[in-house]
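COURSE: Structural Biology Practicum
ASSIGNMENT: Worksheet 4, Part C
STUDENT ID: 0417
INSTRUCTIONS: Below are two proteins. For each, the amino acid sequence is given first, followed by its structure token string. Answer the questions at the end about the second protein only.

PROTEIN I
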Amino acid sequence: MAAHEPSAFHHVQDTATWELFPSLFGHPVEIHLPKIFGFQITKFMILELLAAGLILGIYIPIARRARTGELPKGAWWNAFESILTFIRNDVVRPTIGEKYTDQYVPFFWTLFLFLLFNNLLGLFPLLGSPTASIWMTAGLAVCAFVLMHGASIADRGIVRYLKSLWPHIEIVAPPGRPAGHGHDHAHEHGHDHEHDHDHGHDHDYVQAAPAERVAWHQWITYGAGAGFGFIISLMIFSLELGGTLIKSSVLAVRLFANMFAGHMVLAMILLFIYLAGKGGLSPLWGAVTVASVLGIIALSLLELFVAFLQAYVFVFLTALFTGMALHPEH
């Protein structure tokens, strides 16, 4: 197979061919991943399984030791257990409340660790970051979307949950019952018995008719206001439901865009060395190589921070939106 030009996209693309070296001794070094029962295995699938395996390999022994009541010992144990403590006490508990923390914190632990390890895999040569794929981040956003709704539905039932999304809008207050205004008015002003006897019937008749007309007018106004309020409530209810979809979509796009852009920049800086060396070894190639290597080191440290930050942001916003669904009164 003939050598071909290296590309920065292979590091952030999920393909069935895992390109290790674009050209080595005149030939590319690639791994062609197989199909299993007609289902194509891809590079990012392998990396996701690798991330899951690393999480299990680290935390299962820690969990077994913690179950015995043994205190954390050593930098390894303390470092990885402190991650779980931080997520529980500083992310999940303040956002969803003490009542639901222990119930849902395993989900947030798993989500954070899975995101973090997938982000970090992109910093190692020959590997890649599955979170640089919009399909992978979209799958995690679907999980977050299900939790946002499912937690509240499991807690209160679907009817009460939907009612919490429906705003109560009262444009016009309901009218009161028509009262015998004329008779009460006569007593309030101290009219004597003779006046009430002689003219009470006429007075009640004169007052009752306008009162009846005003009541019908109020009911018509109230009905129009209630209908308009229903339309506004329906619009807000639709926006609330659509808003949860938008929130989940933003989670996916934010994570994908940050990881994709970061790894593309790293790959492009490395390509500068290749492009400068196409003209042969020269002082320019040496200068570009030194500058590129130093730039890669600096940006890799930044990417290390971004890997933690993006995992934190995704989990924090998921917990925040879940807490809003669990506590609609706030």
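PROTEIN II
(use this one for the questions)
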Amino acid sequence: MGALPLPVVLAALAVAGALPVLGWAALARPEAGTVASRENLLRGVALPLETGERSTGRDRLARLTRGLTPRGTVARLNRLASAAGRPAAWPVPRLVAAKLVLAMIAGALGLLAVSGGPSPLTIFLAVVVTVVAYFLPELLLYSRGQERKEAIALELPDTLDQMTIAVEAGLGFESAMARAGANGKGPLAAELVRTLQDIAVGQPRREAYLALADRTGAPDLRRFIRAVVQADAYGVSIADVLRTQAQEMRLKRRQRAEEKAMQIPVKVIFPLILCILPTLFIVLLGPAVMGIVSTFSK
């Protein structure tokens, strides 16, 4: 039995080296300090950190993956994770490792395919699959962030209505925000609670509000935060601002619904042309064509 080709050996080594990193990216849990900090923020109680639970091997692997990834990519992942609400199952170190592992596995499989039958099409497909595998975690995180922005935009009018009622009943703006955050269940309620926590630990109100707009990236929420900051700076009644913003957000939500309804006929045209009309032509014209063919074939 002859020796294996060099590309096959290199591909096998790449897959063998990528599997441990893939296992760490899929199964590694957040660090003990991160878990303890999150629990402290939720409970409001300072707990001692169990530093003995940290794995030095895992830390070295995380530093290695960060060293192999450009800083711009890590910063972009941080922005996408912030817009997606920083899912607990998708921490940034795991995403960085997943990008490298997926790219290595896709590159190894592409190398195997190219070594079996090299051709321009095979090489092009191998490169495209490797690039897509490298950016796949970012695409998934971006999609998660877009869904979260849409959910915030849908929840914002109702949340502003609740805050308007609470402020007109005599509560302050932060108390109304706390009530809306406690009554809500979506991402907007979680962001309001986090903003109040930032203010409680000493962050200035203006910076906490602007950080809320930057984290979510929702245009409607950013416009509302800008109006609140200006009202706070110029002494405008917050009840009037809330009432005006609630009306504007309801109008925008209605306009978005009408816009999507108007897009439906345009989106239906392509399935109609590609799927329904050919079938209809076959059913209607098929017997006639068969009759014409049988007549002229005699």
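ANSWER KEY EXCERPT:
Q1: The first helix runs from residue 6 to 27.
Q2: DSSP finds eleven helices and no strands in the chain.
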